[in-house]
Write a structure and sequence with these properties.
single chain, 2 domains, mainly alpha, Methane Monooxygenase Hydroxylase, Chain G, domain 1, 177 residues
Length: 177
């Protein structure tokens, strides 16, 4: 039980670090949490054996849900890291392009809306449909909670990415004026 509470502390610290933008430190905390949780499951298996461990189904499922959530967060950090390195490679190319191309990237001339935010809206609708579909499939409260947290996290990440893209393009346009 001590390892489990330690892992919970690490997970809460990792979430706080992650939400404040300290992704490298959050990454390390998530990995520590994964290690502690898997060690806890292994110790539980060694101490109780397989059949008695299965009797603690609820506790095992909760630990597995935490492991799943930590591994998802690690994947998101890695994927965001890859997309941010791609953005930094693409960003300098904006400086040499014409302002017409830059404005067409953010503003749709027919609707007057910003395409970055249109894409965000489309992505969020896809996420909502996927969330609702997955929610209907399962009856487990732990999985439903994880789905809700994952959905909310992805919505927030999409909003942040759209804002960053908009800021990058509008900064380049203002710099040329």
């Amino acid at each position: 039980m001590e390892n489990r509470s330690l892992a919970l502390r690490h997970v809460s610290e990792a979430l706080q670090l992650d939400s404040n933008g300290f992704h490298q430190a959050a990454f390390a905390k998530y990995l520590q949490s994964l290690h502690i949780l898997t060690t806890y499951l292994n110790d539980l298996f060694i101490a109780l054996g397989f059949s008695k461990m299965l009797e603690k189904n609820r506790e095992v499922n909760q630990v597995l849900c935490m492991i799943h959530e930590c591994s998802d967060r690690v994947s998101v950090i890695i994927n965001n890291r890859e997309s941010s390195t791609i953005q930094t490679k693409v960003q300098p190319s904006f400086a040499g392009s014409s302002s017409l191309t830059e404005t067409s990237m953010i503003e749709n001339t027919t609707s007057g809306k910003f395409s970055v935010f249109e894409k965000l809206q489309d992505e969020n609708m896809k996420l909502l449909k996927n969330y609702q579909r997955r929610l209907e499939i399962t009856n487990d409260k732990c999985i439903k909670t994880n789905l809700k947290l994952e959905f909310e996290r992805r919505l927030a990440e999409n909003a942040i990415l759209a804002k960053k893209k908009y800021d990058i393009v509008s900064f380049v346009i203002l710099a040329e004026l």
